[in-house]
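Summary for the steering committee. One of the milestones for this cycle was to obtain a three-dimensional model of the protein with 2-phosphoglycolic acid bound, which we needed before selecting residues for the alanine scan. The sequence and ligand used are listed below.
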Amino acid sequence: MNNRKPFIAGNWKMYKTAAESVETAKKLACLVSGVINVDVMIAPPFTALSHVYEAIKESSVMLGAQNLFWEKEGAYTGEISPGMIVSSGCRYVIIGHSERRQYFGETDQTVNKKIRSALNNGLVPVICIGETENERDAADTFNILDKQIKMGLEGFSPYDLEQMILAYEPVWAIGTGKTATSDQAQEVHRFLRNLIETLLGKKIAGSTRILYGGSVKPENIGELMSMPDIDGALVGGASLDAEKFASIINFKS
Ligand code: PGA
């Protein structure tokens, strides 16, 4: 047994207006009001953040952003600073999601800068890593993850990263309906925990929550959560519906 509290997060991606986000968030807060053994976070689009914050601030549901830009302010049209995110009520920020890497040119270097900026502003980074299908087929999964972790976390001390959350999201499982089997996921989570131990020490390795992401749904969460190194989930599609997401949060393993 470990004492890592499960963390289940919903990434709403580019879905829902502010009004729709508030409606789903309120419903969710109601449905999970009795849950004390799981940390619950939702990441609605930027335009909904402060509205959702007002709607859920008295509840146990916590708020996160889906991305940030590392500068404090400046002529960066279309970007959102960490201070703006904090002032919208967020405690968390998702960094390096595979869709950002795939469509918006994010690299391990930009991920590194974003982590630094999140930490400097008191935000907890939820750092996403994962291999593509081709990389898995080429038996390259562990090399890719090793590189993503080493470059993404370069220059940080164990103290800096005490609160970080990692999310292992195999790219081939995101939005495809294909979930990694619980054994496949466990194998990778174990690898990641060992890597964190080598880089940052036993204490951080033991306390870092490593989430699984990629087609998580009510039907597979129990089995995933029964694995010793899987500490939660980053849920896309199935988090858009409050009832479905609540049944994931109420998983039984
Ligand atoms: P999915 O997305 O649950 O829809 O596969 C997961 C994610 O992208 O975080």
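Key point for the committee: The mean pLDDT is 97.
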